[in-house]
Every structure is written in C-alpha cells, then in structure tokens.
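SAMPLE LOG
Freezer: B-3
Tube label: C17
Construct: single chain, 237 aa
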Amino acid sequence: MRDWMSSNLKNDFGDSKDDSWNLRWGVILWLLWSWRNSYVFTENFWKPPDPLATFLFCIFADFSDNNIPQRDVVLECWTPPSATWVKANVDGAVKGDSAMVCCSGVIRDASGKWLGGFSHSLGCCGVYEAEEWAVLMGLKCAWDEGFKKVILASDCKTLIDDLLQGSATSLGSTVHLQIRHLLDLDWIVQLQYTPRNQNVLADHLAKDVSCSSILRSCPDHLRTVLATNCMGLTPLL
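STRUCTURE (predicted):
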C-alpha cells in the first residue's frame, strides 16, 4: 500500500506523459480525507451528490501552469436546500474599475444542479440598491420558473435584516415595494443571509456581467466554480 501511494505521488510511471498525476492523485486523497473528517465531526455535513463526478473532474481537469488556481480553497461552501426546495443565491457588485453596478443570481436544487439564473446591468447606483435589485430579480426569476418553495440567499446582511424587520433603510423605496409584492404571492419564500464565501457563484456572475440576460445554463467560463461548489470547495476571493 505504501509503495503504491508513493508511486502515485511521485509520478513514478515510466514513460507516462502526464506530469500532473501526482497533483490529481493528491487532490483526490485529500478530498476523501476531508469528506470523512467532515462526516464524523461536522453536524449536517453535505456530501457532494456525485463523488465519482468530482473525482473524474480532478482526473480530467486542465492542471497546466496557466490553469492552476492561485488562491486557496476552504471547506465552507454553498449549502444546498432540502429536497423539496430550491435555493436562489443573489449578489450585487461594482464591476472592476468602471463603477458599473450589476446584479446576478443562480437557482439550484438540492443536488446543486443549475435550474436558472440571471445577470443584469444597473448602470450607476449605490451598492445597497444593487443588492435590493438582486433580491428582486432573484425572486422574479424563481417565480417565473414556477418554483413554490424558495430560499433566497444574499450576502448583504443589512438588506436581509431590513427586509425581515421592515427597517426604514429600504422601507418605501420602489424596489422594496416590488420585493414585498413578490413575497406576498402564493408561495413560500425564506430570506437568508449567507456569508460571502458561500455565495461565490453569484458573486462571479455579478462581476462578469456584459449585458442583461436570463441564463438557462451555467456560462462555460464559470463551470469550474460550479464544479468546486459541488466538490465541497469554495475559492477564496
């Protein structure tokens, strides 16, 4: 066993041309070890819905020098809804140095499957207003898709508290009134604050908006972010 593991970690395979196998092998071993520890020591640990797909991703992903992530990862990731619910993660952000404000969101089921999403350019406005628009658009997208049990998650704690408590911060604004109207429709919505490192996919979408659109599937350049969420990993921003 020791020799077998050592050979994999040293790339000791004769004429093998894949000089990144030791990295792939090490990542898979680390995932197994971390999942096992999380299962034993972490209450309500969410095991990735398809561990084999996670391992295949590690095996076939491009680990060339230009594609290895330069940031660390942590095991505090997106948490799924229960089986009969969907979860809409939303975010508002300023795009780069352009001062352009955008909002976005993604709806996923209990397995992490992409069910719908949106990206919307808002022009110039305050960040709080962008977060309001993100909540509004997330609710509208979920309602239009016909979902009846929705968790709406935002990393703007002030906004979530304001909406739950009816604070004067947003009370009376046009966007706030539209949010209230949607919440009063015939469905069940839970508003939830989520830490930023559990809202990574929505954050990436908000910072990458080129035009307003409804997203029926995950954009190709964000599939790795979606996959790491399903692995139980979250890139640190």
